[in-house]
Amino acid sequence: MNTTDHHPSGGQRGGPSAPDAPAERARLYPRVTSFRSRHGTLTPAQERNWEQLWPTLGRDVPSTIPTDHGPTRATAEPLDLPTWFGRTAPTVMEVGSGTGTATAAMAAAEPDVDVLAVEVYRPGIGQLLGLIHRTGLTNVRIVRGDAVVVFTEMVATASLTGIRVFFPDPWPKSRHHKRRLLTAGILLQMADVLIDDGIVHIATDHADYAEWIAAEIAEQDILVAAAPDEVPFSLDRPTTKFEGRAEREGRVVTEFVLRRRPRDEVGAPTEPSNPDIKETP
Ligand SMILES: C[S@@+](CC[C@H](N)C(=O)[O-])C[C@H]1O[C@@H](n2cnc3c(N)ncnc32)[C@H](O)[C@@H]1O
């Protein structure tokens, strides 16, 4: 199967004729995003936490803005993780941290691991800032914006020990499948920022999305099933409201734990094939 025929949100690292600057690529090939814009206001306490903590704990992905020549945005600034966290430690990125319940609990349970939470939804980040403020966590940093930009432009190759994707939006309607985050192309982009033997941990309560994810995993051979003793951080997840609802409604949670095969075994990830991705109405 040619994944990009079916799942156009797959990767878009440039081929030989692709434009160099990521922002230029974003303008030419706007990606169908895996999230919808949601507005929401912060409580006064969250606003105070934001003012106080965001300059130190947060970074923004530059916004995409419409122009006469199509959507565009500034190139995202690379993150210097050891400087930002103030130490060198295994770093795990969480894609779509929601309200941060799992993020904060897992960071508290493993103080020797740094957690990079990425989320687009400001009120959710506001809640996570509140948790950090109340508990005094020092090992969480947050990026607001599209996680795909974070791991394609902001995080260095071979720098993360793990990536968590818990309950990604399932986009159940067929016409929305193009919005699903987890495609073979995106998995390869994740593999690029993982260290050798780094781990991707995915959980979903959506049976159809679980089948889709399994098929996408089978499309590439850089991320392979990990044995439990190969995982250098905890796989224990606190129950978030998504999992609680799934349990009450009798849905099964499927987890995937994947290991990035060492580079000297597999070479560089193959280029995802089709950069020619256009937003569809
Ligand atoms: C169904 S919620 C799950 C939240 C959380 N992981 C949990 O288990 O409670 C999915 C979250 O992913 C976020 N999201 C989806 N695509 C994203 C992306 N490309 N970058 C950052 N966040 C994203 C959404 O805003 C939403 O908050």
From TrEMBL:
Protein name: tRNA (guanine-N(7)-)-methyltransferase
GO molecular function: tRNA (guanine(46)-N7)-methyltransferase activity
EC class of the enzyme, as a word: transferase
Ligand binding (substrate): K173, D205, T240, K241, F242, E243
Listed transmembrane segments: none
UniProt-listed SUPFAM superfamilies: S-adenosyl-L-methionine-dependent methyltransferases (SSF53335)
Catalyzed reactions: guanosine(46) in tRNA + S-adenosyl-L-methionine = N(7)-methylguanosine(46) in tRNA + S-adenosyl-L-homocysteine
A Pfam family assignment: Methyltransf_4
UniProt KW keywords: Methyltransferase, S-adenosyl-L-methionine, Transferase, tRNA processing
Function of the molecule: Catalyzes the formation of N(7)-methylguanine at position 46 (m7G46) in tRNA.
Region (Disordered): 1-23, 261-281
GO cellular component: tRNA methyltransferase complex
Listed EC numbers: 2.1.1.33
Classification via Gene3D superfamilies: Vaccinia Virus protein VP39 (3.40.50.150)
Pathway: tRNA modification; N(7)-methylguanine-tRNA biosynthesis
Binding locations of S-adenosyl-L-methionine: E94, E119, D146, D169
Sequence similarity: Belongs to the class I-like SAM-binding methyltransferase superfamily. TrmB family.
